[in-house]
Write a structure and sequence with these properties.
homodimer, mainly alpha, about 0% strand, elongated
């Protein structure tokens, strides 16, 4: 494994510094958690993909659960984009949220974080916590900024459509959704987000 | 394990017949696939829960993948209920579908089938196939009966909300959705199904 680290250092012409190595481990971990889920991903496999020794992974991040929690945090850009949504007009909040969510799912780095959390949520309590936290905190904050009519419930309805979209498009890959251009996905999902965030929740009886 | 089989036969006062044993294995398998997902469920664990020897599971059902495929078929009552939806008025199809779906998720037997498929879909191609098949065939048939405007896309949008609901309410258990009475869940989900099945899909530009 150290030989693969050396050869990549040779390719780039310099020895990788600790920051590069740390980020290489994080990227490998995100990819393996996203692909395999928490249970099947191993420190050994992650170390192998990053071209380092498993002991170095532990030295940088600690045990597998600590590694998971650290590398599966959403990048601050996503949290910032979510927070900014509350500022804009209510009439377009569903569409603007759809743009942020689809953008997050189309970017390989944040996509692997979201898919890794969803894939791991069934078996790993930390992953389930992260999914709950994102829904409750980030989407909950947006819902509360938009309405005082059941914001928590609205946030989890939005969250349910987000995880369902991620699962259907990127994990189970059901067609035609899996091959749709991102702009079309935004168009189709936006009215649902708008409904859950702003409109009357119960159908007229 | 055979001792546990004998003791349960003793408890019920008679030796369980092959049909009972077969159904006990199927129930144990469904529960373990739903709880653990395909990878972590084992023939040994399933046999243990059913109070039989693992060899008997193999004799009845074959290998783990064959067992999965057989016990994870949706009960015919669900397929019948789905098929009947196409007969009713279009104006209420979203609500009637929500009743069938929430009913399916509230019944422990069909719930364990749906959750087992979703939990297993990330790692087991057969499970992903079953999710895709249900969306494409059962919901696709309903969508095609309701409209000829992109029925396949409508079916997968509906499917994405169903898997998202199952994940958020029953696997990740996000509140307040997790504790909501079934009737309320039907109320909140029905407009989304109605939109995806019947209404104009893209927002006016």
């Amino acid at each position: 494994m150290s030989s693969s680290s050396e050869s990549s250092a040779k390719r780039s012409g310099r020895r990788p510094g600790p920051t590069t190595t740390r980020e290489a481990i994080a990227a490998a971990a995100r990819r393996q958690f996203a692909e395999l889920g928490y249970d099947r991903a191993t420190l050994r496999g992650i170390a192998g993909e990053a071209g380092v020794d498993a002991a170095l992974v532990v030295q940088f991040y600690g045990a597998k659960d600590a590694l998971f929690r650290e590398v599966m945090a959403l990048p601050p850009t996503v949290a910032d984009a979510m927070a900014a949504l509350a500022e804009g007009p209510k009439a377009t909040v569903g569409r603007r949220l759809a743009e942020v969510i689809v953008g997050m799912l189309e970017d390989p780095r944040s996509r692997s974080i979201v898919l890794g959390r969803i894939r791991s949520a069934s078996s790993h309590p930390d992953a389930a916590d992260l999914v709950r936290e994102t829904v409750t905190r980030d989407i909950g904050r947006l819902a509360a900024a938009v309405t005082d009519d059941e914001p928590d419930l609205r946030a989890v309805l939005v969250g349910s459509q987000i995880v369902g979209l991620a699962l259907a498009r990127y994990i189970v890959r059901v067609e035609p959704l899996a091959s749709l251009p991102a702009a079309d996905v935004i168009d189709y999902i936006a009215p649902t987000f708008q409904h859950y965030l702003v409109e009357t929740l119960r159908p007229p009886s």
